[in-house]
Amino acid sequence: MSGSTESRHALLARLVALGREAGDIALGFYDRGGKTSADVRWKGDGSPVTEADMAVNAFLEERLKALWPGAAWLSEESADDPSRLGAKRVIIVDPIDGTRGFARGDEHWCVAIALCEAGRPVLSVVHAPALGQTYTAAAGAGAWLNGEPLHVDAAPAPHSGMAVTCPGNLSKALRAAGLEFDYKPKIASLALRVAWVASGVYSAGFTARDCHDWDIAAADLVLQEAGGLLAGLDGRPLLYNQREPIHGVLTASPSAMQPELRDALARTPFA
Q1: For position 4, what pLDDT does the model report?
Q2: For helices 190-198 and 213-225, what crossing angle results, to 10°?
Q3: Are residues 133 and 40 both part of a single domain?
Q4: Among candidates 178, 250, 182, which has minimal Cα distance to 213?
Q5: One domain for residues 232 and 206
Q6: Helix locations, 28-106, DSSP H
Q7: pTM above 0.70, yes or no
């Protein structure tokens, strides 16, 4: 990302402030342990979208486009504009990642925001207001949780005690392939699942096919800057703002653990 370290941190501070304002909007519709007060409707793919998602989306689109004039926009809750493909910068947003959990009063949801340049995130915020957790990252400058630096541990090869998060169907396939990790329950937010690898809550994580840019771009940078990697079976960092902003099965882990995890994944029907 162009600009001095000071300017990156200043921009990140503004991004954090907007993420927290967006989180406050969502909290106005949130009932911990109870059903949301927001209207809920169902999209064509069977996933829910709430009044809160749309309110946060509108707020962020207005404020972030003002922060980065000329940047393209890609959000789960906005119609896709193909002109984004020619843009130097794109803002990628999930206004509420983990809407299903949010709607039923679960605390595992977040506002996810990433600024991408040349296909990679350069600034990001993953703000989980119900948990009091704010993950932030700037390319080449580091990652933080509530202002404290994040560094993933150099991890050994996979073993049965390793805490792993993944969808239930994928965990069954991994078990069938002889991979007896310590499988943790899947939380509603995919962005948080990846961020929790960066903070050490999970040793590693897998995602199912068909996750989208807005699910993972912000948390990807957090994990990268903490010393980890989110990658597909080819082991390469992901590219964002492609014609189809969709990804296959992915692994999230400390970088040193990636080859073993990809080998493990290759033994399953999901490879």
Answers
A1: 62
A2: 10
A3: yes
A4: 250
A5: yes
A6: 51-67, 99-103
A7: yes
Distance CA 192, CA 67 (A): 25
In a domain, 156, yes or no: no
3 state SS of 265: helix
Single residue among 120, 149, 178 that ends a domain in this structure? 149
CATH number at residue 110: 3.30.540.10
φ, ψ of residue 31 to 5 degrees: the values are -130, 105
Phi and psi at residue 223, to the nearest 5°: -65, -45
The rounded distance, in Å, linking the Cα atoms of 243 and 63 is 25
pLDDT in tens, 120-131: 999 999 999 999
Residue 180 lies in domain: 163-266
Specify the residue for token string 């704010």.
134
Buried b (16+ CB within 10 A) or exposed e, 227-248: bbbbbbbeeeebebbeeebebe
CATH number of the domain at 176, please: 3.40.190.80
The yes-or-no verdict on residue 2 having pLDDT over 60 is no
Mean pLDDT of the chain: 92
Of 149, 173, 192, which marks where a domain is finished? 149
pLDDT higher than threshold 60 for residue 158: no
